[in-house]
């Protein structure tokens, strides 16, 4: 799959008992993190960044080998319990 031909890549993230979402906006070269409990799994965002950069290098895509930014979205709705994170990811 040529990731760089896509507009938006959705990566649901499940860590033991909690779901979050990472999106890769290819056109804006932006990796976005969303979490309905305000938890930041920075290592996961870092790993996606490393993967994207490695994929750009391997696929000889110089336009995508630099200029990426990480965005932590803190203005999203927050869940009021410990059960709804999966629903928030789907929304």
UniProtKB/TrEMBL annotation:
GO biological process: proteolysis
Cited Gene3D superfamilies: Adenoviral Proteinase, Chain A (3.40.395.10)
Pfam family name, one: Peptidase_C48
Keywords of the record: Hydrolase, Protease, Thiol protease
Annotated InterPro entries: Papain-like_cys_pep_sf, Peptidase_C48_C
Domain (Ubiquitin-like protease family profile) ranges: 1-91
Protein origin, superkingdom: Eukaryota
PANTHER family: SENTRIN-SPECIFIC PROTEASE 5, SENTRIN/SUMO-SPECIFIC PROTEASE
Name of the molecule in the record: Ubiquitin-like protease family profile domain-containing protein
Organism annotation: Cirrhinus mrigala (Mrigala)
Lineage: Eukaryota, Metazoa, Chordata, Craniata, Vertebrata
